[in-house]
Design brief:
heterodimer, A: 335 residues, alpha+beta, six-stranded mixed β-sheet, five-stranded antiparallel β-sheet, elongated, B: 558 residues, mainly alpha, MetI-like fold, 2 domains, two-stranded antiparallel ribbon, 22 helices, disordered N terminus
């Protein structure tokens, strides 16, 4: 079962929300829509869910066009950021709701609910009300409710964003485990690139209604194709062609065909090699202790450069350093 | 797919098609919308039409011209303006003191003060006039004890009674305005070195601008359109409300009545407009997560506020309480032994009108809750012109004083030759009139309740396979249950005590409780009027108490 999105467009009062969206989600794949707020990722998710009608383009599930299929008949599961449980129903009733709508037998519902309560580790909470649960537990119930109807696609709209950091980490792992064991194709919207990297098989990085790049997390991090992706996926140095011509001409040889002079090299800070050297051309201007590493600002050949070194490395402000850059660590990005 | 799934997708029963749903959703809108068109828009159309229908025949402005040489109307207008302006001024001043005392001081007795402010809402407005007469009137307790008989009938009595009647509503608006303030502004001003007086002038007053303006218009409108007090304590001092009644019911001059009715729309419409502008302005200024300032104890200030507010509250309680007491006294204020004989009411139709009022109020509450709930649901779910039309129409009834509404019903429904003429003289029409009278307030409350329903929950139901019926049953009804009860209680209580709208619609066969109180008082049976008022207050008070218990319990449950 795969989901195919072809050439999707959506405008809101003249504002482009989705532009030429093409995307395919394979069976049992976990895909993350990643981007800043307003990039169109939630709009795309809502179009797929059937909560919003696209202006143009098509969405197909296993070859079947979904345009005329309302949300209630798509058979998907959805989990929102918060506030989506029925406050007057118990946890068990919430989870069984979709099956009740479909007129399933009560014994079958009860069995399914028990099974899912185990899956989300809330077996002893069946008779509680949502108001008596923590935020993390409520989201587990929401996930169980979405899974109960055996969805053909699981849609997650920032399901972890309203949670505390620790709970978020824990639930992140569980979400990944559940998705892997059930093999349900899943689409998650998030603005947190760490979350996307931990969870996703593939990340869809979006900006201003356009898909900037699609690929596995490692690829988007190490080989971003645009400035936007390079910026959004983590810290980095963007070295312009002009500057490289004076400072590091040997890196220009790696420039692939098709990258104009407006392009740049993306160099992740952990790939900037630093050695204390009184004759070095770099000078440390500032550094921040980050626990397991140090983030160092330096002045090198007329520009500011960001580097990350093991925490135990000793630097003082004003120290001279030698800077080593390996051309293999550099990724060329478009303008 | 995992083997753990108990229900393969192919075996799920097919869900109802989306087309059935659209139909249902539209019905939710059109049913209440049709009621609004028939029982509000049409009567208003009739009153406008009648104002151009000349007594001599034909269509023209003769009624408007006739108004110029009807001296009674001009005197009544002058008097109404004088009473309205004085009442507004006094009410705003006192209302501000009350609101500030309740919201921004730690004065003792706040519970008593806010409780006393609910009393005038539980009774027909004329009960306040009645109470004043028992205290200060010709046969009042003050006259008996001190031999001092102030001229209470007329301007002064009218102003006092109206102030007592309008005060709770003014306090409500002003308190809301005070609550909308942000403590951080005061903290910032304090840190910057502003004195309390400066903070009051620079933060408190500007923040209350619209609240004050809106309260002023509300007070002015209810004062000049109030009927009960004008009859009970107005004496020979005629005002517009009584004059319009005389013109229509006494002299059968319907054209003049229609013209004056339309003129009475002006101040009310203005107040509605100001409230809307205020709401928009305030919406822009309110920062997210604004925290209302928490007052710190301040002995002198708290003491002064306590003396003023508790003193005035005691007066309100006394005015209402004296009515209850007088109903049990053999001959107020001369023979003070207790008796129940005033409760044996046989004149003016006896208790029949109380049962009618109960029935009409129940009808208004039930119909109102059903129509308003469907309307609020549909307005939230639908888009397009019918939804915009409904939103607009729902906001209009608050701009129409009860007096004008009642008059318009006479024009629209006292028409035996038209199909809807059969409704005239029925309890159903009285119920609809009362519902339309308080429609907007009920709608706003209902909308607030409906807006509290999380969008995510609705969408979750949609994705899980639910339609309009499931939305109503599993999301909306549970979420707004308490709102439904409070709207029902509000409509019931208002319907029990209102006089100005129904005064035109009652017939010898079908009278309302508040009208009976007025008739008893007019006929000189003041003790019976007091007894009858006590019965009304007992009913309305019980409902209010029940509602209070219900909402606090619901709030405690979360």
């Amino acid at each position: 079962m795969s989901l195919d999105i072809r050439n999707l467009h959506k405008n809101f009062a003249g504002q482009v929300a989705l532009d030429r969206i093409n995307l395919r989600i394979e069976a049992s794949e976990f895909v993350c829509l990643l981007g800043p707020s307003g990039c169109g990722k939630t709009t795309l998710l809502r179009c797929i869910a059937g909560l919003l009608a696209p202006d143009r383009g098509e969405i197909r599930l296993a070859g079947r066009d979904l345009a005329a299929v309302p949300a209630r008949e798509r058979g998907f599961g959805i989990v929102f950021q918060s506030y989506s449980l029925f406050p007057h129903m118990t946890v068990a009733e919430n989870i069984g709701y979709g099956l009740r709508i479909r007129g399933a037998e009560s014994s079958r519902i009860a069995a399914r609910v028990r099974e899912l309560l185990d899956t989300v580790k809330l077996a002893s909470y069946a008779e509680r009300y949502p108001g008596q649960l923590s935020g993390g537990q409520q989201q587990r119930v929401a996930i169980a409710r979405a899974l109960a109807v055996d969805p053909q696609l699981l849609l997650l709209d920032e399901p972890l964003s309203a949670l505390d950091a620790r709970v978020r980490d824990e639930l992140r792992g569980e979400l990944r485990d559940v998705q892997r064991s059930l093999g349900i194709p899943t689409l998650m919207v998030t603005h947190d690139q760490d979350e996307a990297m931990v969870l996703a098989d593939r990340i869809v990085c979006m900006n201003r209604g356009l898909i900037e790049q699609v690929g596995p997390p490692e690829e988007l991090y190490a080989r971003p194709r645009t400035r936007f992706v390079a910026d959004f996926m983590g810290h980095g140095n963007l070295l312009s062609v002009d500057w490289l011509q004076d400072a590091a001409p040997w890196l220009l040889d790696t420039r692939p065909a098709g990258i104009s002079d407006a392009g740049a090299v993306c160099l992740r800070p952990e790939h900037v090699g630093l050695q204390c050297d009184a004759l070095g051309e770099g000078q440390v201007t500032d550094f921040t202790f980050m626990g397991n590493f140090k983030r160092v600002q330096l002045d090198w050949k007329g520009r500011n450069l960001l580097a990350e070194v093991p925490a135990r490395t000793r630097f003082e402000r004003g120290d001279r350093v030698r800077v080593d850059i390996d051309a293999r660590d550099c990724a060329w990005v478009e303008a | 797919m995992s083997a753990g799934f108990a229900l393969p997708a192919s075996r799920l029963p097919r869900l109802a098609s989306a087309m059935d749903d659209r139909w249902l959703l539209n019905a939710c809108l059109w049913l209440p919308l049709a009621a609004l068109l028939l029982f509000f828009v049409m009567p208003m159309g009739f009153i406008a039409w009648r104002s151009f229908m000349q007594e001599a025949g034909g269509i023209g402005l003769a009624n408007y011209a006739a108004l110029l040489d009807t001296p009674g109307v001009w005197r009544a207008t002058r008097n109404s303006l004088a009473v309205g302006a004085s009442t507004t001024l006094v009410t705003l001043l006192l209302g501000f003191v009350f609101a500030y005392g309740l919201e921004r001081t730690c004065m003792p007795g706040r519970r008593f003060v806010s409780l006393s402010l609910t009393l005038p809402m539980l009774a027909p407005s004329l009960v306040l006039g009645l109470g004043l007469i028992f205290i200060l009137g010709r046969n009042g307790i003050v006259g008996k004890v001190f031999g001092f008989r102030p001229e209470i009938y007329g301007f002064h009595g009218l102003v006092i009674a109206n102030v007592l009647y309008a005060l709770p509503q003014a306090v409500m608006i002003l308190r809301a305005a005070l609550r909308g303030a942000d403590a951080r502004q005061y903290d910032a001003a304090e840190v910057l070195g502003a004195t309390p007086w400066r903070q009051f002038r620079d933060i408190t007053l500007p923040g209350m601008r619209y609240g004050l303006l809106s309260a002023a218009f509300v007070v002015f409108t209810i004062t000049i359109t109030d009927f009960g007090n004008a009859v009970v304590i107005g004496g020979d001092y005629t005002v517009l409300a009584t004059e319009i009644y005389n013109q229509v019911s006494g002299q059968m001059r319907f054209g003049i009545g229609a013209v004056v009715g339309l003129l009475l729309l002006l101040p009310a419409a203005l107040s509605v407009w100001i409230e809307r502008v205020a709401a928009q302005r305030q919406a822009g200024s309110g920062a997210d997560g604004a925290q209302a300032p928490v007052p710190q104890p301040h002995r002198l200030r708290d003491g002064i506020y306590a003396i003023v507010c508790v003193g005035l509250s005691t007066l309100i309680v006394a005015v209402v309480a004296i009515v209850v007491v007088a109903g049990f006294i053999r001959l107020w204020p001369y023979r003070l032994d207790l008796t129940l004989r005033h409760y044996d009411i046989t004149v003016s139709g006896g208790y029949a009108s109380l049962w009618t009022a109960l029935w009409v109020s129940l009808l208004a509450a039930t119909l109102g809750v059903a129509l308003l709930f469907l309307m609020a649901f549909a307005v939230r779910r639908l888009t397009g012109w019918p939804q915009r039309l409904a939103t607009l129409l729902c906001a209009l009834p608050v701009g129409v004083p009860g007096l004008v509404l009642g008059l318009s019903y006479v024009f629209a429904f006292n028409q035996p030759q038209l199909p809807w003429g059969v409704l005239y003289g029925s309890a159903f029409l009285l119920a609809m009139c009362n519902l339309m009278h308080y429609y907007t307030q009920g709608y706003v409350t209902m909308m607030t309740g409906v807006r509290g329903v999380p969008v995510q929950l609705e969408e979750a139901v949609g994705v899980l396979g639910g339609g309009v019926l499931q939305l109503l049953r599993d999301v909306y009804l549970p979420a707004v249950r308490v709102t439904l009860w409070s709207v029902a209680a509000f409509l019931f209580m208002r319907s029990m005590v209102t006089l100005s709208a129904v005064i035109f619609l009652i017939t010898p066969m079908l009278s309302m409780a508040a009208v009976t109180v007025m008739r008893l008082d007019e006929a000189g049976f003041t003790a019976q009027a007091a007894a009858f008022s006590t019965c009304i207050m007992a009913v309305v008070g019980s409902v209010a108490l029940l509602m209070h218990v219900l909402t606090t319990r619901a709030a405690a449950r979360g």
